[in-house]
């Protein structure tokens, strides 16, 4: 889809639209610019292993870290050493069907697990200093995108 | 406290905002003593990086005094006078351990945005839009600095504030380009852009042994600074055929290393400039690249081109054929601050690297909107406007 089209369509001007915009950013096709490869259908995409590489020995991931443990039995995980001394690959996926919301929680859990192991804490951002947040359509769109961005992305 | 906020495209205001707090164990709170404009801010101001929210505090090149220390911080004390890297780095991920600090895996809390844009998320940057974290910036009285053991550096007593300040971003960015661009003793280096970043790239190239350094811009006062303070030869591209001039000065070879320090709003005279501007404004391309194109065409065979200027997404009319057929190395990066700041501070202390002349306009934070106006329009010889949040 054309970027302008996407932006104007998403300018339904809600924070929900911002999250949707971000969700679709990865499938943007600019005019005349694309990739040759086929795209996963949603069912295949939902079944893919989603993985982060953690700079730590595999035994640090032996006990399922809490953000992933919170997803319970619905999720299976795979731990293996990364080639070239890059640490340990931690992958996870849902055993059964998964909604977009499920996948979002899984992305966030993987990212937080990696942070906990590598730096010992998850980065916190709020409260942060800011001035007057004018209530504009663009602002609402961005608020939605930012709120979704821990759960979105290519992971 | 008072802070400079972005309130809309080309609009800034100084407002009252809440003070920052320690949020993570590795944070410190800094009392900002000096904070300055960067060419990168201009891309935010003009709306080319559409991830700004009204009320965001901007600013990422700064120094200050530590006033509060998180429980996990090991090497910083209250009272330390520090300069801070503009990008945030955790120090523990594979990228940080390999000194690719701006690529940190753990410092951008909004990875979804840049993963979608670029295929992978890069690290967070202070005061530089929600795409790279949405951190509050340095144009304020106080600021939270995460992972302070990694990103902040105590300034030696012998280094004055107006020198140390530029280790934060301009000089460390320049060093990133010189180092990863592969400048070797004896090289000829050409630098596009005579802003603070370009001037620092010229000076640092000479410090690591380049034999001939040429700086390209059109603003006479900046070219004069590059000549005086970096000892560079200069070319005014508005009156000179840059590629022809470079061939003549390099025995027909072209420069060994070409460093681009201009960015996505590159100016160019003639039809190419009009074409780029129209396409950028119609959103058919997001970036204007005239300086990168020129660098690629001018570079010697087998040479290296490094883009320090910030680009957001897609470009047009890119001379890929020249890159491939001339065997060029094309590389870019955001600044890997912690890799270079210690060495920069040594050079600053020994007097080999001076930067005070970049601070052409020093003013209270309350006047920051005027400072940005001068900086954006390059009025009154402005190279950097420096703000003093505490007078
Ligand atoms: N990679 C990083 O981490 C990083 C860090 C800081 C700044 N930057 C980027 O570096 C660039 C320069 O920063 P700055 O603070 O020096 O900016 P600046 O705006 O002060 O300077 C840019 C200079 O480029 C000149 N210029 C414009 N078009 C040109 C052309 N076609 N050929 C030659 N010169 C041209 C302008 O006259 C100006 O002097 C910006 O794009 C900025 O975003 C990158
Ligand atoms: Zn900068
Ligand atoms: Zn890191």
Automatic annotation (TrEMBL), chain A:
Residues 127-155 are annotated as: Disordered. It comes from the Bacteria. This is Uncharacterized protein. It comes from Geodermatophilus nigrescens.
UniProtKB/TrEMBL annotation, chain B:
Residues 196-265 form the Alcohol dehydrogenase-like C-terminal domain. The keyword Metal-binding applies. Keywords: Metal-binding, Oxidoreductase, Zinc. It holds the Pfam family ADH_N. Its cofactor is Zn(2+). GO terms for molecular function: oxidoreductase activity; zinc ion binding. This is Threonine dehydrogenase.
């Amino acid at each position: 889809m054309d970027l302008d089209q996407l932006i104007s369509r998403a300018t339904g001007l809600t924070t929900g639209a911002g999250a949707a915009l971000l969700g679709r950013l990865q499938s943007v096709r600019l005019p005349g610019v694309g990739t040759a490869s086929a795209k996963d259908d949603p069912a295949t995409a939902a079944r893919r292993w989603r993985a982060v590489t953690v700079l730590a020995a595999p035994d640090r991931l032996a006990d399922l870290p809490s953000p992933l443990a919170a997803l319970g039995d619905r999720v299976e995980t795979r731990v293996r050493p990364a080639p070239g001394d890059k640490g340990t690959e931690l992958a996870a996926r849902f055993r059964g069907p998964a909604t977009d919301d499920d996948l979002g929680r899984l992305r966030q859990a993987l990212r937080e697990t990696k942070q906990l192991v590598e730096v010992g804490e998850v980065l916190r951002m709020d409260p942060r200093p800011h001035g007057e947040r004018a209530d504009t359509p663009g602002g609402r769109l961005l608020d939605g995108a930012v709120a979704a961005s821990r759960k979105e992305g290519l992971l | 406290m008072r802070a400079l906020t972005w309130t809309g495209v080309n609009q800034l205001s100084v407002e009252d905002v809440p003070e920052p707090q320690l949020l993570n164990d590795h944070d410190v709170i800094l009392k900002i003593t000096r904070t300055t404009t960067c060419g990168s801010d201009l891309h935010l101001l003009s709306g080319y990086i559409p991830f700004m929210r009204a009320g965001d505090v901007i600013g990422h090149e700064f120094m200050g005094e530590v006033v509060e220390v998180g429980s996990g911080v090991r090497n910083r004390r209250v009272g330390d006078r520090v300069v801070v890297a503009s990008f945030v780095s955790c120090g523990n991920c594979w990228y940080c351990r390999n000194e690719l600090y701006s690529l940190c895996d753990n410092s951008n809390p909004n990875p979804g945005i840049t993963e979608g844009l670029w295929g992978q998320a890069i690290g967070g940057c202070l005061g530089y839009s929600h795409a790279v974290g949405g951190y509050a910036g340095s144009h304020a009285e106080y600021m939270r600095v995460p992972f302070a053991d990694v990103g902040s550096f105590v300034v030696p007593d012998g280094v004055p504030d107006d020198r140390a300040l530029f280790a934060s971003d301009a000089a460390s960015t320049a060093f990133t380009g010189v180092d990863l661009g592969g400048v070797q003793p004896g090289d000829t280096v050409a630098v596009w852009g005579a802003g603070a970043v370009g001037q620092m790239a010229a000076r640092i190239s000479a410090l690591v042994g380049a034999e001939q350094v040429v700086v390209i811009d059109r603003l006479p006062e900046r070219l004069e600074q590059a000549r005086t303070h970096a000892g560079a030869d200069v070319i005014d591209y508005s009156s000179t055929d840059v590629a022809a001039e470079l061939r003549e000065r390099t025995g027909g070879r072209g420069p060994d290393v070409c460093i681009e320090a201009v960015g996505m709003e590159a100016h160019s005279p003639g039809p190419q400039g009009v074409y780029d501007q129209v396409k950028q404004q119609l959103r058919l391309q997001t970036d204007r690249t005239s300086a990168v194109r020129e660098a690629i065409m001018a570079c010697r065979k087998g040479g290296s081109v490094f883009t320090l200027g910030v680009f957001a997404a897609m470009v047009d009319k890119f001379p890929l054929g020249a890159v491939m057929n001339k065997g060029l190395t094309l590389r870019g990066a955001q600044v890997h601050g912690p890799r270079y700041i210690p060495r920069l501070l040594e050079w600053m202390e020994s007097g080999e690297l001076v930067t005070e002349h970049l601070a052409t306009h020093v003013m209270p934070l309350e006047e920051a909107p005027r400072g940005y106006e001068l900086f954006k329009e390059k009025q009154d010889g402005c190279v950097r406007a420096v703000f003093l949040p505490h007078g």
